[in-house]
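Support reply, case 0932

Customer input (verbatim):
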Amino acid sequence: MRPLRDYLLDTYESADPRRRNRAVDSPIVIDDRGGQDLLSFCTMTVRVPDSNGDTLILSIQDIPLTEQSRSLIEDQGGNIREFAGGYAAELTLSVKSVTFIRKLARAIGQTTGRGKRYANPNWKWICPRTAASLERFATVLMSYRAERSSNRMLR
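Our regenerated output:
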């Protein structure tokens, strides 16, 4: 079974020909940003302090923060910082935090929509994409857990 850090690097950065040193805990970009996505995007990274452990640190820059998403993050023990352009959140999670990640994705996704008002007009594009990236991340963690479980059963 691959360690969590390797699994995430293989899933999210397989197109990077430079392949980082897997022994170093460096941020792994999970926000599904493409080549033409330069502005108005919510940057999301994850770090895995112990390559063989289950703990990960999720960082979200320029997070579309509402009362609902703030409450979810704070209830999970996350840290929210305000800076000149908006907010950043950092949370310590585990591979079992899939339900929380999906709740956060839903809260961010529901920020915008027909007839809703929100603080930043760019959230119209940012929120659905951020929610989709968080949903994908939750699915990746579920796949990792399933692979790990099946490998344990084979032993």
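We compared this against your earlier run and they match. Two observations from our side: Residues 4-17+38-149 form one domain. The chain has a mean pLDDT of 87. Please reopen the case if you see a mismatch on your end.
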